[in-house]
Backbone:
């Protein structure tokens, strides 16, 4: 069994990075996630595992350091918060286009612009629909606990290398700052260049050796036919993710008439709302998407067969509701889909969730 | 006293006719052709290579032309006689 | 030997080849315009990597601009960076692979304009990399617009009446700024318009690469270059224009040759 420790979500990210054999972290301070790099600097993993930790001059530089380091087949990651991730969006698009594995943590805060330092989920669209230019997708994981902050780091690297694609951990300020007990994973050694090549192939740019032709990592292709081919290859990859990587959790859905759909910290609020609703005799359940891309469409389609309606609970103006509506529409069994949320750094209360549910879904229609 | 005889071979299909080698040659043995290569460039070439031995402006194999060539299409040979 | 009867073939057969295309330069025809300085510098980079025997440990980072396709011409592993970010990409590569040799190849728009922050900070940190900086005072790839290094009065697509201080500000001597940074050990300005300057430039590139291999911090080689298409001149005229107009403002020579700064000079008590 792993070591048990009480720590902040941000600290758990840092600890998990060291333990999963991460080769490099490149970041730039921004609230509410600065503890990630601070923890790493205190832990000084370069003495123990050889992991590099570097404070970059900007988020723009940090993401491009991931491009460079990830392009050599090394496990590299960064963390930031919403405005910083906006700055990284160009780099993320290039990384997706050049098919470089890496992990990006977004501990979201309210926007737009500089916004607030309080928690938010307003970067759902940015994370799941693009953010940068071009047809690309990140694989997006949404932790709802400090334990998952820890667990998802290693998982993200596995997925990033499996698909040669950037993976985003979409968290928020509440989970980043909250303290919980965590079962830490055991230390895994960093891989050598030979092990990387054996495990993931010889695409990385670590110096041309032997008879292989030289490796080039680029997102540029001026021949339109070839560029379309590249896009088709990316789309096939995203399709495979949709088939193989959907992760979600159902809570009290078996007998439910109504389903809340929520991720991250909102999902925690919803568990309390369910308790309150059930005390009133409302059979309420929760579907918690763990992967936001690929989105759990099939579980929603299954629920459409037996529930009366859905309500998303989000810390934004209603972003995930679009994916829930699409999932319901594609199931062919149309059920009402409502939304409740707060913006600007406010976390919805369980009471508000239940009263909105009663008004919009149960009483109203 | 040993004397150096030189010559150059230009990949005329790779040459883009920029003319930089002509200016770099101290012996003035290169010029641009009136003909064009498959890319449409008036390529650089050595004037009458087999006769240049008698010419006072003979190639000395100094490699200046190859050194300034942006397309690396000049090979230089030297023979001590 | 009757030298009068020697033919070209005799010299080729009996003589020694004193200049040949470096092996690391791939057969692809470069996309550069006739007379472009990029071709010469590419060849020098290929020659230096070959002579130092470091192909297996070299990773190049190319920019956005005309040399975006540098990866098609030199037979080493390459990463193509986004506009201006090559020094950050090189930092990433070099930090997690300290046993490798990493260099960036950037133009003046890429390095001195959009990428000014990245190059300053990489050089200030003293990343163990080499930087090749092609300064032709114009944006070549996008069709000859003003660059930060464009000279006052110089006509470009976006300064049709010449660069004007009130409207466009001053030409940026970024290499002078770089030389001030404590993380750099070797900062030099070179050119490739004559065989002599090409040979000097090669020596500079070799020194820069050796410095990076020896972990001596950042080495920076500016190459004052021509863009005859952008300048709308023949290659020969462009060289002359460069000598007359660029060299007085961007004088060729070493700006710094030594070691990174002594940390004691930068510590708290100073």
Residues:
């Amino acid at each position: 069994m792993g070591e048990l420790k009480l720590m902040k979500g941000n600290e758990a990210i840092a600890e998990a990075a060291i333990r999963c054999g991460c080769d490099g972290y490149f970041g730039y301070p921004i609230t509410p996630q600065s503890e990630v790099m601070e923890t790493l600097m205190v832990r000084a993993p370069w003495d123990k595992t050889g992991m590099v930790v570097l404070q970059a001059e900007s988020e723009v530089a940090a993401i491009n350091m991931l491009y460079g380091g990830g392009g050599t087949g090394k496990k590299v990651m960064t963390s930031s918060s919403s405005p910083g991730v906006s700055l990284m969006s160009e780099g993320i698009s290039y990384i997706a286009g050049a098919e470089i594995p890496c992990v990006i943590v977004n501990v979201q805060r309210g926007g737009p612009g500089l916004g607030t330092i309080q928690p938010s989920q307003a970067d759902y669209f940015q994370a799941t629909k693009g953010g940068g230019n071009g047809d690309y997708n990140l694989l997006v994981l949404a932790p709802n606990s400090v334990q998952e902050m820890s667990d998802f780091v290693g998982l993200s690297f596995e997925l990033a290398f499996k698909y040669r694609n950037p993976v985003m951990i979409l968290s928020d300020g509440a989970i980043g700052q909250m303290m919980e007990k965590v079962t830490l994973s055991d230390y895994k050694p960093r891989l050598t260049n030979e092990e990387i090549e054996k495990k993931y192939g010889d695409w990385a740019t670590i110096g041309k050796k032997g008879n292989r032709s030289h490796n080039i990592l680029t997102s540029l292709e001026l021949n339109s036919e070839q560029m379309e081919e590249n896009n088709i290859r990316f789309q096939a990859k995203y399709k495979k993710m949709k088939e193989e990587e959907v992760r979600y959790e159902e809570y009290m859905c078996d007998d439910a008439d109504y389903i809340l759909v929520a991720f991250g910290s909102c999902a925690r609020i919803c568990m309390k709302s369910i308790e309150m609703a059930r005390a009133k005799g409302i059979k309420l359940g929760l579907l918690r998407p763990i992967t936001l891309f690929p989105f759990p469409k099939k579980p929603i389609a299954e629920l459409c067969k037996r529930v009366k309606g859905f309500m998303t609970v989000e810390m934004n103006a209603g972003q995930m509701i679009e994916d829930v509506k699409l999932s319901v529409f594609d199931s062919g069994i149309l059920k009402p889909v409502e939304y409740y949320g707060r913006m600007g750094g406010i976390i919805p209360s369980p009471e508000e969730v239940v009263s909105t549910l009663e008004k919009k879904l149960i009483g109203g229609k | 006293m040993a004397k150096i005889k030189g010559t150059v071979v230009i990949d005329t299909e790779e040459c883009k006719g920029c003319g930089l080698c002509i200016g770099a040659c101290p012996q003035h043995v290169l010029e641009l052709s009136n003909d064009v290569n498959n890319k449409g460039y008036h390529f650089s070439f050595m004037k009458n290579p087999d006769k240049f031995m008698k010419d006072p402006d003979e190639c000395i194999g100094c490699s200046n032309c190859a050194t300034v060539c942006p397309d690396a299409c000049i090979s230089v040979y030297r023979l001590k006689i | 030997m009757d030298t009068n009867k020697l033919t070209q073939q005799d010299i080729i057969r009996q003589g020694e080849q004193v200049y040949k295309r470096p092996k690391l330069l791939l057969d692809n025809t470069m996309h550069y315009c006739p007379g472009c300085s990029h071709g010469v510098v590419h060849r020098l980079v290929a020659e230096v990597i070959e002579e130092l025997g470091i192909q297996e440990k070299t990773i190049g980072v190319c920019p956005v601009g005309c040399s975006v396709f540098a990866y098609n011409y030199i037979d080493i592993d390459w990463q193509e960076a986004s506009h201006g970010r090559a020094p950050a990409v090189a930092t990433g590569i070099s930090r997690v692979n300290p046993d490798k040799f990493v260099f960036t190849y950037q133009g003046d728009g890429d390095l001195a304009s959009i990428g000014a922050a990245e190059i300053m900070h990489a050089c200030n940190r003293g990343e163990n990399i080499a930087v090749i900086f092609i300064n032709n005072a114009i944006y070549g790839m996008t069709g000859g617009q003003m660059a930060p290094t464009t000279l006052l009065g110089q006509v470009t697509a976006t300064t049709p009446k010449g660069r004007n201080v009130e409207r466009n500000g001053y030409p940026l001597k970024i290499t002078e700024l770089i030389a001030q940074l404590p993380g750099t050990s070797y900062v030099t300005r070179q050119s490739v318009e004559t065989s002599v300057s090409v040979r000097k430039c090669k020596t500079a590139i070799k020194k820069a690469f050796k410095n990076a291999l020896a972990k001596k911090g950042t080495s920076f080689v500016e190459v004052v270059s021509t863009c005859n298409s952008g300048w709308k001149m023949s290659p020969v005229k462009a060289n002359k224009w460069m000598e007359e107009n660029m060299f007085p403002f961007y004088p060729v020579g070493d700006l710094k040759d030594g070691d990174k700064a002594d940390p004691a000079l930068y510590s708290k008590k100073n």
Notes: The first strand of chain B starts at residue 4 and ends at 10. The beta strands of chain B are 4-10, 30-32, 44-46, 74-80. The CA atoms of residues 27 and 56 of chain B lie 8 Å apart.
